[in-house]
């Protein structure tokens, strides 16, 4: 995966379900979670390359902190 301000590009090699432009997607690296929409798709057999417009990004560490705090506040 490569990325820049407001976009990410990735290559899919698993031959899963088709993904069309406009499809909402979530991507996660070890440090960041990205949420956005597929902007462009290019097929280069046997792979598909996607360009994703990133609408939101979250630090994984922040998400874990929020989840831990949420779990502490939930009644048993």
Strand neighbour order, sheet with most strands? 1-2-5-4-3
Q: Into which percentage range does the β-strand content fall?
A: over 45%
Identify low-pLDDT runs: none
Q: Average pLDDT across residues?
A: 87
What structural class do helix, strand and pairing data support? alpha+beta
The arrangement of helices and strands along the chain is EEEEEH
- Fraction of helical residues: 10-25%
> DSSP helix count?
1
Oligomeric status = single chain
Question: Looking at the structure, what is the overall shape?
Answer: elongated
Q: What does the radius of gyration come to?
A: 15 Å
N→C terminal distance: 40 Å
Verbal overview:
The protein has one helix and five strands; from the N terminus they run βββββα. By secondary structure, the protein is of the alpha+beta class.
Highlighted features:
single chain; 76 residues; alpha+beta; five-stranded antiparallel sheet; 5 strands; elongated
Secondary-structure topology with pairs:
Blueprint: E1 2-4, E2 7-12, E3 24-28, E4 32-44, E5 47-59, H1 60-73
Antiparallel strand pairs: 1-2, 2-5, 3-4, 4-5
Provide a short characterization of the protein structure.
The chain has 76 residues and is an alpha+beta fold. The protein has one helix at 60-73; strands at residues 2-4, 7-12, 24-28, 32-44, 47-59.
């Amino acid at each position: 995966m490569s990325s820049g301000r407001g976009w990410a590009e990735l290559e899919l090699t698993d031959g899963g379900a088709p993904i069309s432009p406009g499809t909402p997607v979530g991507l996660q690296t070890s440090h960041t979670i990205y949420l956005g929409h597929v902007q462009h798709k290019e097929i280069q057999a046997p792979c598909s390359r996607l360009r994703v417009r990133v609408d939101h990004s979250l630090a994984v560490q922040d998400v874990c902190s929020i989840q831990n705090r949420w779990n502490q506040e939930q009644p048993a």
